[in-house]
Amino acid sequence: MVSKLANETLQHIFSYIEDASVLYSIIQVNHNWCENGIKFLWSNPFRDDIDIINHTKILPVLIPFLKKDKLLEIKNGNNTMIYDIGLFDYPRFITHLDYSSCFRIVLKYFENNKEDFEYFIDFLEKRYFERSESTLFQTMSDDSELSKILVITLIILTVISHGTPKILWLKIDIKYNDIKRFLNVTDYDSDEEDDTDDDERIEVSEIKSRYRIIINIESSFSCFLNADDIKALFANLKYLELGKLTIKLSILEVLANICKQLKTIKIEERYFQLIREPLVALIKNQNNLENLRISGIANSLKLEYEATIFEIFSSLELVARSLKKIKIRGILVTNDETFKFFDKCRNLEILSLDTTYVTSKNFEKISLAELPKLCTLKLFDVCSNEEYDRITNPIQAIFQNKKISLDLRELSLLNESIENHHLLGSIGENFRNLSFFSTQITADRDIPYIFTILNNSPKLEELRLVIPLPYTSIVNTGFITDLVKVLPDRINAINFFNLICCIDKYRYFLENCTVNLKYFHVDFSVDINNYKEFVEFAKIWSKEKGKEIKNCRESRRKLYIAWK
């Protein structure tokens, strides 16, 4: 009889079993009971929140012949090359496939078990490669480390497919550090970040090598995906995430034809022109798309960029009614009709625009839309028509839409290139249910509106105020001595950026703070030489208030304190 305990409970029970023989005995006593728990544990075996060295232990479970002693048994006639599923058919439990994490795990296994790895590859070459025309072994056409690692990842995918699982979640997000070992660079040759996209800072030869490697990795997965019996595994896919360095064209071409039930699509791309057709087809074919994240790099000078972005977002008109969350980052929206789909987004709950250029006409499209369920709006580093920005803030019209203002709970406005003008006045008049509020202050005239917003937001729990560096010399920060006295009772988290620069203001603020703070973060506009005084006062104040500090991080530029 299958246990009725929740999977999370079973996982908790298993966490206390340290002895392998005890676990084995439990499995023998109640196979069904353990299968219930193992089903949960194996649903996402390649998740990236596990220490990667421990994570490599999964490979010999999926491919027992990776161990040299197993292959020696075969050579000596004491075993056969028949895949043994063990106590459970683990692959059939898998519903989440993170191909990029799988690649990293195989790479780490190669680094730590090179002798076993090489022995297994040598065995495959001698026994199968010479006489096989399988696409699996075509990957080994050169003798590079990368080819060997890709062969193992393909074998893992093949083993998984034989378990006939239903893959509901797919992520491919190869990072620069994943492939750097295959390039002719060292840590001293390149100062790139893990997810770098700056081709101008590295040699042309490295750019070519990098894309050759990425194409090989993508081709390996496409080779697996193209088989008809494999396509069926992804027919019920709900979540798709493709990272910036992934070459997506062939993958999207396949998935666009077989996936109809996606709820989440997350695409990060450098050149959307290259994937325009399959991405548009994928979006249009969805029956109930809820979450869309489009991230790019502002490269509007590239051929067909404006037309590509327009077509991608125009395709959302067919799925707009089911959309609940939209995040757009690093995109130039220059066609004035691009955002017309917002008028149909009646179920939209979260909208985020980040590092994006949006024409004033497209802001108007949002301001005229009926978004009755919108509860979170984040506009970060957004810019618009310069000639229009000098007169008014193009974002302001959104907050005059009464159909938006009633349900909004979280609001973040940090757009340094656009002056507030009367933006905060519109917010103070129309928003009464905010629990999170973040904004910039660009002039002294903004300050009274901050007080109005606080007075009209009794449910506010977190406040974040920023004076952008270009405005620090023209904004009078003396207002915080009055602001501390009007904080709503529910506030427990405060973030100040460039508002406090001396110990007297810091001390005054805490001494007069009557709310139950759990989090206080101060970023200073200049280096503070006496920052230790800030720390000591925070400790003294905490002790007087009976508050225990859980975490404290300080430097010359910032002070972060969290209380239990």
What percent of the residues sit in helical stretches (DSSP H or I)? 25-40%
- The geometry reads as globular
| Beta-strand content | 5-15%
Averaging pLDDT over every residue, what do you get? 83
- Main sheet strand line-up: 1-2-3-4-5-6-8-10-11-12-13-14-15-17-16
Residue ranges: pLDDT <50 for 5 or more in a row?
A: 188-202
Task: Profile the largest sheet.
Answer: 15 strands, mixed
Question: Tally of extended strands?
Answer: 17
Return the structural class.
alpha/beta
Rg on CA atoms, Å: 28 Å
Measured between the Cα atoms of the first and last residue, the distance is: 44 Å
Oligomer: single chain
The number of helical segments is 24
Give a short synopsis of this structure.
By secondary structure, this protein is α/β, with parallel strands linked by helices.
List the helices and strands and how they pair.
Layout: H1 7-14, H2 20-29, H3 31-41, H4 52-55, H5 58-62, H6 68-75, E1 96-98, H7 99-112, H8 114-127, H9 135-138, H10 145-162, E2 169-172, H11 176-179, H12 204-225, H13 228-231, E3 239-242, H14 249-258, E4 264-268, H15 276-284, E5 291-295, H16 305-314, E6 325-329, E7 332-333, E8 350-354, E9 357-358, H17 360-368, E10 376-380, H18 386-389, H19 402-405, E11 410-414, H20 423-430, E12 436-440, H21 447-455, E13 462-466, H22 480-483, E14 493-497, H23 503-511, E15 519-523, H24 531-545, E16 549-554, E17 558-563
Parallel strand pairs: 1-2, 2-3, 3-4, 4-5, 5-6, 6-8, 7-9, 8-10, 10-11, 11-12, 12-13, 13-14, 14-15
Antiparallel strand pairs: 15-17, 16-17
Helix pairs in contact: 1-3, 2-3, 7-8, 7-10, 10-12, 14-15, 15-16, 20-21, 23-24
